[in-house]
Amino acid sequence: MGSGKKAGIKKRNRFYGIIKWGCGLLAMLVFFSILQVLSLRYMDPPSLLMAPFRFIAQGLNPQTPEITMHWRTFEQISRHVKRAVLAAEDQRFLTHQGFDFIELNDALKDMASGKGYRGASTITMQVARTVFLWPARTWIRKGLEAYYTVLLELFLTKKRILEVYLNTVDWGKGIRGVGAAAKAYFHVSANSVSKGQAALLAAVLPSPHRWSPAKPNARVLRRQKRILKDMHKMQLPKNHS
Predict the structure, then answer these.
(1) pTM across the whole model
(2) Which of 183, 200, 207, 208 has the fewest CB atoms found within 10 Å of its own CB?
(3) Does residue 241 belong to any structural domain of this protein?
């Protein structure tokens, strides 16, 4: 066998080896990501996933504030908060499979007509990036966000997804979740938040570091009024949904 042919065989074997190695790595990553999402059925994110990201962030930037979180079960959270958040953030939460294409289409129309940019992220998408991903806005992260969104909808109930969201959403500097937000802004427990307070909490979610539920500006009050009108229409997820 000629040396040229041997070199060709070696090169081909090396190529197949790289492909095999890549497929093996991809399979491991898929398995690990599925395991991550499945673990959310039984474990809460603060100790499971979010602590390492906070540690890294504080190492890179010592001025990163300490995060306050008070995990509350779905039953320990006021129904007003659940309805207000759904009214403000994701009114079709119970009917979509992680992606609200109606909202996305409306957002694209607004951009095309010059009305400006508005987010079209669902609650499931927000859970995906808050719990599993880094904060930088890149196409890689957006792709992974979509991937984790599919996994969350496959393996978790709507009730659990909403519970995780309410406990991990950013509600201001150093404030994560409804337990910490209720205490910080209104000095009450998560299950004692009133209807008006819940609408204020939901109203600041687009910009929790500029707006305050405790000191609402005119824009926040307008959003609160709209949310209060929509809250009664919101159905809450059941155990089986």
Answers:
(1) 0.83
(2) 207
(3) no
